[in-house]
Amino acid sequence: ANCLDRHLEQRGDQTAIIFEGDDPSVSRNVTYRELYEETCKFANVLKDQGVKKGDVVTIY
N or C: which end of the chain has fewer CB within 10 A? Predict the structure, then answer.
């Protein structure tokens, strides 16, 4: 299990990340389940692009 999998059953609907934008009126709470789903989607995009274990990826 990865670091998100282990939290899904008990904390899936709890806030994992609070995003606050440069504008104080812009914020978003992300649950563990939402973070897991988005992380899986992004990991699959990287795999589709040929990224393999051990490769270095920079995200900006």
Answer: C
Q: Checking phi first, is residue 21 left (phi over 0); if not, alpha (psi -120 to 50) or beta?
A: beta
pLDDT along the chain (60 residues), means of 10: 84 94 90 94 95 93
Encoded tokens for 4: 């998100």
Per-residue burial over 24-59, b = 16 or more CB atoms within 10 Å of its CB, e = otherwise: eeeeeeebbbbbbeeeeeeeeeeeeeeeeeeeeeee
3-state secondary structure of 2: coil
What are the C-alpha distances in Å from 41 to residues 22, 23, 27?
26, 27, 22
- pTM, to two decimals: 0.78
